[in-house]
Q: What sequence folds into this?
């Protein structure tokens, strides 16, 4: 499985390490044409406004939508979750508008409110250590979205078919089970394309 | 649930990687920086080149400026405290600033001791000229390092010197045996275990940005080429003729630092960059990089 990590800005190297630990080949993606050879794409944590602007500037929006329409999986973490969402609270425009959910940016407050905690995630046996940094929340989801995890009754991880998103940073710990989960999604999607 | 852990503080800097952090002096400049794609803004009363020109004692910014900037942008807001000024840092923390720069750009409040940054919930970035300085700051709790360079000069030579030195020293310690590292820790004035960690990883345990003299898109790309994980641009943007265009160009050149055609395009018709100062004309206390070790 060859998985790309969108490398316009943010924690790219950490995701590459996580994907490799999960048995995939991982590459940094800076150009649209690099999407062609991929089985899946991670949109990393970073600043969503910066990533969103650069995605538009380099015409990534439609090619990534097409990538998703082909059934290839996308995984957004933190800023990446915001980039995937259909709706962003307080903003008229969203970015990729792929996942049927409304997100709230900086939902926990400022950096001093950032935290880590243990979380149960549907489909993963034992709790995972989740690092939340100026993290967003999923405030509401459409019927086709499966909620994978909640924290204090708020949604922090979800899946809609080939789309996976979480509020926290699985790439900041050495526990790569969520990366393995995503690599499995890519494997299943590749098998169904053949 | 735990706040202020080292993973949470260092992780915040990880999310800034590949980005540009811009100095701003008011809400209007902060909006320009955010619109240009900055990953964070540094709220200041004066940019380094003005601090240099004004002379006198430079202190933490008026909290009103920090508050105004915080109100208008959704990206993180950083602010500077004087070296060793625990109370300025506590004030900034209580205001909800996202990151504190314990900075040599301001006049040091303590010429011997830095702030014990481990005690704070919010993360700190500190400047360094060499590996020893970087690791001493990390021991004190810094969650991010930047080169000191020579702020407010528009001259990238010192940032280049510091980044090359830090990387050269890391390569050197990576080649040392465990027994040699005991002596090296003594020579550098740093904790042995931390030095072993750096030697084994071949990199600092925190994110390392370039700062101090970055004035053009090509300067920013040069620092990325030399292995910086992002850049701070201080006086360079709002002391140029066309801050909006300059800011956008620096962001693009940082993202695509190996795409020379793109850097060519974004460098066209930018107008005059800040004038700049030859480092050799600076002496004594005008050399901000020498204000702490």
A:
């Amino acid at each position: 499985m060859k998985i790309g990590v969108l490398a316009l800005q943010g924690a790219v190297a950490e995701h590459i390490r996580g994907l490799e630990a999960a048995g995939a080949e991982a590459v940094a993606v800076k150009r649209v044409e690099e999407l062609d050879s991929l089985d899946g794409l991670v949109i990393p944590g970073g600043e969503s406004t910066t990533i969103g602007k650069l995605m538009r500037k380099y015409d990534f929006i439609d090619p990534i939508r097409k990538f998703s329409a082909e059934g290839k999986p996308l995984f957004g973490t933190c800023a990446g979750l915001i980039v995937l969402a259909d709706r962003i609270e307080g903003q008229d425009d969203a970015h990729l508008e792929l996942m049927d959910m409304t997100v709230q940016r900086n939902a926990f407050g400022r950096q001093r409110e950032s935290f880590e905690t243990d979380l149960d995630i549907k489909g993963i046996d034992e709790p995972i250590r989740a690092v939340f940094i100026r993290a967003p929340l999923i405030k509401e989801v459409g019927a086709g979205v499966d909620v994978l995890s909640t924290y204090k009754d708020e949604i922090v991880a979800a899946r809609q078919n080939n789309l996976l998103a979480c509020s926290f940073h699985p790439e900041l710990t050495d526990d790569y089970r969520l990366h393995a989960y995503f690599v499995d999604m890519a494997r299943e999607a590749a098998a169904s394309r053949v | 649930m735990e706040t202020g852990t080292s993973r949470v503080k260092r992780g915040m800097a990880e999310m800034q990687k590949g980005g540009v952090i811009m100095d701003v002096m008011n809400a209007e400049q902060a909006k320009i920086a955010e619109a240009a794609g900055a990953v964070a803004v540094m709220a200041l009363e004066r940019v380094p080149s003005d601090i240099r020109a004004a002379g006198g004692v430079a202190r933490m910014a008026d909290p009103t400026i920090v508050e105004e900037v915080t109100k208008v942008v959704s990206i993180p807001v950083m602010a500077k405290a004087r070296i060793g000024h625990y109370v300025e840092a506590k004030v900034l923390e209580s205001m909800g600033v996202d990151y504190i720069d314990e900075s040599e750009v301001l006049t040091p409040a303590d010429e011997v001791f830095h702030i014990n940054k481990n005690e704070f919930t919010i993360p700190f970035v500190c400047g360094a000229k060499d590996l020893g300085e970087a690791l001493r700051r990390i021991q004190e709790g810094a969650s991010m390092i930047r080169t000191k360079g020579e702020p407010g000069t528009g001259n990238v030579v010192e940032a280049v010197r510091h980044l090359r030195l830090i990387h050269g020293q890391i390569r050197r310690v990576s080649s040392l045996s465990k027994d040699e590292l005991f002596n090296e820790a003594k020579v550098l004035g740093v904790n042995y275990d931390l030095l072993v960690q750096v030697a084994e990883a071949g990199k600092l345990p925190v994110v390392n940005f370039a700062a101090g003299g970055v004035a053009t898109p090509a300067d920013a790309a040069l620092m990325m080429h030399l292995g910086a994980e992002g850049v701070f641009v201080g006086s360079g943007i709002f002391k140029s003729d066309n801050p909006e265009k300059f800011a956008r160009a620096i962001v693009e050149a940082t993202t695509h630092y190996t795409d020379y055609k793109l850097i060519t395009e974004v460098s066209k018709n930018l107008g005059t960059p800040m004038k700049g100062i030859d480092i050799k004309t600076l002496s004594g206390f005008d050399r901000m990089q020498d204000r702490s070790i």
In short: The two ends of chain A are 14 Å apart (CA to CA). The mean pLDDT of chain A is 97. Chain A touches chain B at residues 7-14, 30, 45-47, 49-50, 53-54, 57, 78-79, 105-106, 109-117, 131-134, 169, 172-173 (CB under 8 Å). The CA atoms of residues 42 and 90 of chain A lie 25 Å apart.
